[in-house]
Amino acid sequence: MCCANTNTAKFFSSIDEIPTQIWETLNCTKNSYFHPDFLKYIEKNHPEITFSYIVLVDKKNIPTAFACLTIINFELNSIKNDFEILKTIGKKLHVFPDKKPLKLLICGNTFVSGEHGIFIRENQDKKAIIKELAESMKHFVNSDKKLKKQIDAFLIKDFTKESLTTTSTLKNFNYHPFSVEPNMKLQIHENWQNFDDYLASMKTKFRVKAKKAFKQSAAIKIKDVTLENIDEMLPKMTELYEKVASNAGFNLGVFNLETYRNLKELFGEKYILKSYSLEGKIVGFVSGIINQESLDAHFVGIDYQLNREYAIYQRMLYDYIEMAISKKLKTINFGRTASEIKSSVGAVPQDLTMYLRHQKTIKNKILKLFLQRVQPTPFQQKFPFKNLEIKYDK
């Protein structure tokens, strides 16, 4: 699916169509999320999603920015927990369709929380770029009569607090901002040379909790998932991931774990994949990527029936921390969900904002009122450290 280029934008329906020269000019491939092979493998392993890409250009036709577009069918029945009442209200007000999925055009990374879907080249006017992006997305849909009828709404995700002065221009295009679950982020303190230093920096209560989790999980065998053993592990990993995904408040898409094979080939040791086993049976796994100076936690799988007894998830969080310290990284992005337990290991919330616009003018006005009621699930922030200055991004 593609449309005619404009003076400010080039459109591509596949990563393979984008010339190498564009990637070189943008100079974005040091960031793993904007490596063409990373994007190609996401595209290849999710044929049920329509992928398109925008490259913005200046008056000299030089690339200035890159954005990922996906078209998904968002099943409203997948909305659970605190979002149930909002779904019901949305249907009653006819903002959401009654019997069919909501067809969404998303700008951003569907599977990863954070600013990983729009790349802006250095020394550009970011506000002007966001304006051009909104215009290009509108052109992308309006240039195809069939697509224009199909798309219910536009979603641009996820922006940190620092970006909101830039993205506020989206309101001029009738987009409505709303807050979503925060990314839980841990800064690795410069004094933490090893995991024992991390434990020593904690208040007694939280240090005792950590040691108890290690004791509970002592019988668990942790093993690297490699290209040699991934085939035998993927079926069970997929089963465990699907249990976690079905528990989430909502998902924009189900991740195909076959993608892990490609990501391990591409990134090698920089792509983290570990299995957790009890008596030879896989009871969990973690995944993540070392992206520049951060460890970004990706999807996990957990056997919930054994989680409490063996402290599986808590052990996973400590293992991410141990990995980040040993690799001398600066931050861990734990992502959304389970905010309270993540705060108990030292993570603090990084607020994230999305922008949504309905295709129909009247429904879009109703949507604004509806989104004002959308709030992230409140949680009790824990403060586990004794004397450390930890930034609280609120």
From TrEMBL:
<dbReference type="Pfam" id="PF04339">
    <property type="entry name" value="FemAB_like"/>
</dbReference>
<dbReference type="InterPro" id="IPR016181">
    <property type="entry name" value="Acyl_CoA_acyltransferase"/>
</dbReference>
<protein>
    <recommendedName>
        <fullName>BioF2-like acetyltransferase domain-containing protein</fullName>
    </recommendedName>
</protein>
<dbReference type="InterPro" id="IPR007434">
    <property type="entry name" value="FemAB-like"/>
</dbReference>
